[in-house]
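*** Residues and shapes ***
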Amino acid sequence: MKQVETRIFLGMARRAAILTPPAAALGWLWRGPKAGITVLIAVSLVLAIFGVTAYAASIAAQISPGALGGAFLIGFVVKLGAMTAIVAYLRKQPFIDFPVFFGVFAVSYLVLLTAETSAWVKERGEAEGEGQGGREPDESESGHETHKINKTPAPAGTTAG
C-alpha cells in the first residue's frame, strides 16, 4: 500500500493535469500570454511543494512517528523560506503576471489540498465500513438520545444534554 501522502499527491497531480490546461487557456484569453504561462508556473510550483512534502513524509514515516512530525515541522519552515525566495524572484520576471500568479497559487493550493484530503477521508471511512469518514453518528442519525459527553444511552425519563 502506498503512503497516504503519496496517494494524496498523485490525486492532486491528476486533478491538476485535468484542470490546469483550461485554466491556462482562460488566463491567456483574459489577460494575454503572460497570464497563461503564469497559470502553468503557479500550479507547477504548488505541485512541486506537495511532491517534496510527500517524498519527505514517506521517508520519515519509515523511520519513526517522531521523525514524521519532525519532517513536517522542518519541512514547513524550509518550504516557507523556499516559497518566499521563489516568489520574490518570480515577481521581478517580465514573463509573470503577478496578480494572476498570486491568485492561482493560493486557490490551487487550497483547492487541491482540500479536494484530495476530503476524497482520502471519504475513501478511508468507506473502507472501514463506516461510510461517514470515521466519525460516530450523532443522536439524529442513530435514532436514540445519547449523553453528549460519553455517548451512552440516556436513562429512562431523562433528556440528554
About this structure: The two ends are 42 Å apart (CA to CA). Helices lie at 4-31, 33-63, 65-91, 98-127, 139-142.
